[in-house]
Design brief:
Largest sheet: 3 strands, mixed
GO molecular function: G protein-coupled receptor activity; olfactory receptor activity
Helix content: over 70%
Organism: Enhydra lutris kenyoni (northern sea otter)
Oligomer: single chain
Pfam family, one: 7tm_4
Radius of gyration: 21 Å
Membrane topology: Multi-pass membrane protein
Distance between the termini: 63 Å
Order of helices and strands: HEHHEHHHEHHHHH
Main location: membrane
CATH class: Mainly Alpha
Strand order of the largest sheet: 2-1-3
Strand content: under 5%
Amino acid sequence: MDALNETRVTEFVFLGLTENWVLEILLFVTFSVAYVLTLLGNALIIVTIVFTLHLHTPMYFFLSNLSFIDLCHLSVTVPKMLEGLLLERKTISFDNCIAQLFFLHLFACAEIFLLTIMAYDRYVAICAPLHYSSLMNIRVCVQLVFALWLGGTVHSLVQTFLTTRLPYCGPNIIDSYFCDVPPVIKLACTDTYLTGMLIVSNSGSISLTCFLALVTSYVVILVSLRKQSAEGRRKALSTCSAHFMVVAFFFGPCIFLYTRPNSSFSIDKVVSVFYTVVTPLLNPLIYTLRNEEVKNAIKHLRQKQVFS
């Protein structure tokens, strides 16, 4: 029993995305470009909002926080993945694996909560405009952001505790390119059915509850838009459609990965790539290409040579 309770595994080995070295080089170039573009795009949004006074509103305050979370979320997995694409043997120490797992869930959960808050912000702005300034003042916004980080931390601690309490005696091969709870607990040398169900209940309930809250808020918004003017409907639909696109791209993979028991679906890797690499890249594109205020602010700052 004492031997079983010890953590014997000191490192994990990733199988990665593919064993074809030509494809690995192509993926390395593709993901490197995507990583740099994502860093620049999200940094551009943050700088633009910070240096543009008329964007100092709750909506853009939350948008800048979303860009910050995307930068963090992306940097948890992509650098290690890029390193693995260049190495024949892709390894990570046990402690680093747990750290990666912790921060992955912290930033993912924080983004889920933030997207839900952003939907509430749009609901108040469109359905209760006369009370917007009192319901969504700067103090409330800061409190909401603090709450989402607290909630993300609690969720991540639960996931990490459920993972580390298991004994790992071998094997140590993870069929993925990063450490996440489902592929890691498969390697535990004990029955993980109950742990797996607890993990699904924790992650799945958060994803589904927030997603249903988001859908409900947008249904209410769409119904209320019938009373708006044509210009008001156009502006509200433009903002809400951009937000809903981000929600769909992020929540879809999360719900697929975390609302079912452990499995060995090969499509899991593709879905994981989508929500760890593609979604953070799409967010700045969606919010800048569809948002005239942000585009005009970027042009104005460029003329003032803020980016030079």
